[in-house]
Amino acid sequence: MxxxxxxxxxxxxRSRVKRVVQFANRVTKEATDSGKKLQEYLDAHxxxxxxxxxxxxxNRLEPEFGLSEWNTFxxxxxxxxxxxxxxxxxxxxxxxxxRGDDVPVPKGVTIREPGAKKAxxxxxxxx
Length: 127
Description:
Elements: H1 2-34, H2 38-56, H3 84-87
Helix pairs in contact: 1-2
């Protein structure tokens, strides 16, 4: 397990370093091509470069730095995925995410929206 985790972290690190090196090379080339000194170029384009840099250092794998074949890691949840079935890697069927009147609610169970105050038990339950 430790070996698999190390493999994952190393792949993320390699991916991030690759993006940072490409960014640095591109910015240096753009500064040189514009005829400005690097510091002048950074002063003029600092805000947009900071935003771009903040995005490129996020954890994501580049295709050439994928996980090793022997790695036992299996993605169980992808929080960036909007489709709930894909979010959980197909492990849960679409029926698990159904909402509405077609879903039977057992007697004594109160359904509440996330963030709502806890509902008091109904008088007709055994609770």
